[in-house]
Amino acid sequence: MAIIAPSLLAADFLKLESECKMLNESVADWYHLDVMDGHFVPNISFGPMLIEFFRKATTKVCDVHLMIEEPGNYAEMFKKAGADILSVHIEACPHLHRNIQQIKSLGMQAGVALNPHTPVESLKDVLADIDLVCMMSVNPGFGGQSFIPHTLHKIKQLREMIDERALNVKIEIDGGVTVENAKSIIDAGADVLVAGNTVFKSKDPKATIATLKNM
Ligand code: DX5
Ligand code: ZN
After folding, report:
1. Per-residue pLDDT tens over the stretch 55-72
2. Dihedrals phi, psi of 208, to nearest 5 degrees
3. DSSP string across 42-70
4. Which domains does the chain have, with CATH numbers?
5. How many angstroms separate the CA atoms of 5 and 199, rounded?
6. How far apart are CA 49 and CA 168, in angstroms?
7. Catalytic residue, candidates 29, 37, 63, 174
8. What confidence tier does 105 reach under pLDDT thresholds 50, 70, 90?
9. In angstroms, what is the span from residue 34 Cα to ligand 1's centroid?
10. Whose CB among 79, 87, 130, 178 lies 3.0–4.6 Å from 106's, allowing a Cys bridge?
């Protein structure tokens, strides 16, 4: 069974309390929290302050996806806000290994996020040091985009890299996940499905989460 991580970016921010209640009552495993800085991606979302509120509203795992430049300057802040998993983008980190060490030394699980054009081979030398690969299946910055089909090849390739070395690294797929394509994503080797619009814009979000979970 896949880990389901609804992305709060697609939630109704005027109704955050009931959105959190819905997630808590659902079979969702993680809260996926998208932080955007208007530099690394052409959009601005929210930061540690809001994550502190989400932390208080749930006992589920807080999976924070940083789409920001210089993430090392903020890692401690996100730890304090309550992040359990912190993912940084490989494209934003010339000293990626240092970022990973910092995240781990702060007591969080470390994730590395990959844009659609970034080859999975670029992870080779850090794969043994991380807990999660957040593979983008859309260009980061916005919810509600269509899944890029080539991602399925990248998932298979990464699955092989991980299994060959018997590593304990989860593959998370982020962007354009739907009830229709979820099965093919899991079959390709994904462990975690992020879903924003598919969950929050559906008529019955809890049921949609259960459908994704039971694929
Ligand atoms: C995109 C974010 C995603 C986004 C997914 O930059 O990283 O997590 O919220 O939204 P959907 O599932 O609607 O594509
Ligand atoms: Zn994300």
Report:
1. 999 999 999 999 999 999
2. -65, -40
3. S-B---HHHHHHHHHH-SSEEEEEEE-SS
4. 3-213 (3.20.20.70)
5. 10
6. 31
7. 174
8. very high
9. 8
10. 79
